[in-house]
Structure to design on (106 residues):
Protein backbone atom coordinates (compact mmCIF):
# COMPACT_ATOMS: atom_id res chain seq x y z
CA UNK A 1 0.00 0.00 0.00
CA UNK A 2 1.45 3.36 -0.97
CA UNK A 3 2.14 6.06 1.59
CA UNK A 4 -0.63 8.36 0.38
CA UNK A 5 -3.22 5.56 0.41
CA UNK A 6 -2.12 4.67 3.93
CA UNK A 7 -2.60 8.28 4.93
CA UNK A 8 -6.05 8.52 3.34
CA UNK A 9 -7.25 5.24 4.84
CA UNK A 10 -6.11 6.20 8.34
CA UNK A 11 -7.73 9.61 8.50
CA UNK A 12 -10.08 9.75 11.45
CA UNK A 13 -13.54 11.15 10.94
CA UNK A 14 -14.31 14.49 12.47
CA UNK A 15 -17.12 17.01 12.62
CA UNK A 16 -17.03 20.56 11.37
CA UNK A 17 -16.64 21.98 14.89
CA UNK A 18 -13.27 20.33 15.25
CA UNK A 19 -12.04 20.91 11.68
CA UNK A 20 -9.45 23.54 12.62
CA UNK A 21 -8.07 21.56 15.55
CA UNK A 22 -8.02 18.36 13.50
CA UNK A 23 -6.25 20.08 10.61
CA UNK A 24 -3.66 21.60 12.96
CA UNK A 25 -2.90 18.17 14.41
CA UNK A 26 -2.60 16.56 10.98
CA UNK A 27 -0.60 19.34 9.39
CA UNK A 28 1.98 19.06 12.16
CA UNK A 29 2.19 15.34 11.61
CA UNK A 30 5.52 14.09 10.28
CA UNK A 31 3.79 11.43 8.19
CA UNK A 32 1.74 14.09 6.43
CA UNK A 33 4.90 16.07 5.69
CA UNK A 34 6.77 13.05 4.35
CA UNK A 35 3.93 11.99 2.06
CA UNK A 36 3.49 15.57 0.85
CA UNK A 37 7.20 15.96 0.09
CA UNK A 38 7.32 12.57 -1.62
CA UNK A 39 4.47 13.61 -3.91
CA UNK A 40 6.00 17.04 -4.59
CA UNK A 41 9.27 15.37 -5.57
CA UNK A 42 7.38 13.73 -8.45
CA UNK A 43 6.59 17.19 -9.88
CA UNK A 44 9.83 19.16 -10.50
CA UNK A 45 7.77 21.95 -12.08
CA UNK A 46 6.80 22.97 -8.53
CA UNK A 47 10.32 23.56 -7.26
CA UNK A 48 12.62 23.82 -10.30
CA UNK A 49 12.89 27.43 -11.54
CA UNK A 50 14.00 26.14 -14.96
CA UNK A 51 10.68 24.36 -15.46
CA UNK A 52 8.26 27.20 -14.83
CA UNK A 53 4.94 26.47 -16.50
CA UNK A 54 1.89 27.67 -14.55
CA UNK A 55 -0.46 25.20 -16.23
CA UNK A 56 1.74 22.24 -15.25
CA UNK A 57 2.21 23.64 -11.75
CA UNK A 58 -1.55 23.98 -11.25
CA UNK A 59 -2.12 20.46 -12.53
CA UNK A 60 0.60 19.12 -10.23
CA UNK A 61 -0.93 20.81 -7.18
CA UNK A 62 -4.37 19.49 -8.12
CA UNK A 63 -2.98 15.95 -8.37
CA UNK A 64 -1.20 16.31 -5.03
CA UNK A 65 -4.31 17.64 -3.32
CA UNK A 66 -6.32 14.67 -4.60
CA UNK A 67 -3.69 12.22 -3.34
CA UNK A 68 -3.50 13.97 0.04
CA UNK A 69 -7.27 14.41 0.22
CA UNK A 70 -6.72 18.06 1.19
CA UNK A 71 -7.36 21.41 -0.45
CA UNK A 72 -4.71 22.70 -2.84
CA UNK A 73 -4.20 25.77 -0.64
CA UNK A 74 -3.54 23.64 2.45
CA UNK A 75 -0.92 21.56 0.65
CA UNK A 76 0.74 24.67 -0.78
CA UNK A 77 0.73 26.41 2.59
CA UNK A 78 2.32 23.43 4.34
CA UNK A 79 4.98 23.14 1.60
CA UNK A 80 5.73 26.86 1.92
CA UNK A 81 6.13 26.51 5.71
CA UNK A 82 8.40 23.49 5.32
CA UNK A 83 10.59 25.38 2.83
CA UNK A 84 10.81 28.38 5.16
CA UNK A 85 11.80 26.15 8.06
CA UNK A 86 14.40 24.38 5.94
CA UNK A 87 15.90 27.70 4.79
CA UNK A 88 16.10 29.06 8.34
CA UNK A 89 17.68 25.86 9.61
CA UNK A 90 20.18 25.77 6.73
CA UNK A 91 21.16 29.40 7.40
CA UNK A 92 21.50 28.71 11.11
CA UNK A 93 23.79 25.77 10.44
CA UNK A 94 25.89 27.81 8.01
CA UNK A 95 26.39 30.47 10.69
CA UNK A 96 27.41 27.85 13.24
CA UNK A 97 29.72 26.09 10.77
CA UNK A 98 31.38 29.37 9.85
CA UNK A 99 31.97 30.10 13.51
CA UNK A 100 30.05 33.34 13.44
CA UNK A 101 27.65 34.44 16.09
CA UNK A 102 24.39 36.05 15.17
CA UNK A 103 23.73 39.39 16.74
CA UNK A 104 20.78 38.88 19.06
CA UNK A 105 20.40 42.62 19.71
CA UNK A 106 18.34 43.84 16.80
Amino acid sequence: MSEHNYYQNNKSSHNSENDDEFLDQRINNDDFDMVLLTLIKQYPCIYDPNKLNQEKINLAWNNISVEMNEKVEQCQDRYRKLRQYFSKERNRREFVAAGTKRDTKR
User: Anything to note?
Assistant: The radius of gyration is 17 Å.
